[in-house]
Write a structure and sequence with these properties.
The chain is an all-alpha fold and about 45 residues long. It has one domain. It contains 2 helices and no strands. The longest helix has 18 residues. It comes from Bifidobacterium longum subsp. infantis. This is Integrase.
């Protein structure tokens, strides 16, 4: 388990935001073989 000892609230918020962007936009899913954002772009759901 990761320790956040010594991490400020602002630092934690930044790390969480970066993780959420990675999870939404860059993480490869097994179902599609690409990121969720990539699939949305392929389907024309995102400009």
């Amino acid at each position: 388990m990761r320790s956040f000892k010594g991490v400020t609230i602002d630092g934690f918020t930044k790390m969480l935001d970066e993780y959420m962007v990675w999870y939404r936009d860059k993480r490869i899913t097994l179902e599609y073989g690409m990121s969720i954002m990539g699939k949305r772009i392929e389907l024309g759901l995102v400009a």
